[in-house]
Design a protein that fits this description.
five-stranded parallel beta sheet; 3 helices; 30% helix
Amino acid sequence: MINGNEENGKVALVFGISGDQGQAVATGLLTTGSYRLVYGATRDVSPEHVDTIAKHISVPVRREDEVLPVGGVAEYVTIIEADLNSAASIKDAFVRTRATDIFLVTTTDGMYLYY
């Protein structure tokens, strides 16, 4: 678990924080004031990638290893590592964040439907 304080409010986990839709959802969730924590999941949590996300999103972003204040309402999106190609990684993200709400976008790129 990333933060030991679970008492007040909802926790959101947004997969695809690197993309436009994920960033828009995280921004919307953060600005509602309804969430104690908002996490953004991406495969690449390198400082360079997190800085790139921070430049393209309209709310503050922090890395997972930065100090987290206890309690209150989320004021930034916390970037965490999770890979949608790995069930273990997804489970780990759920367990570590204790998300009450999860947002996930998938694409149909490369998928073919047969009737």
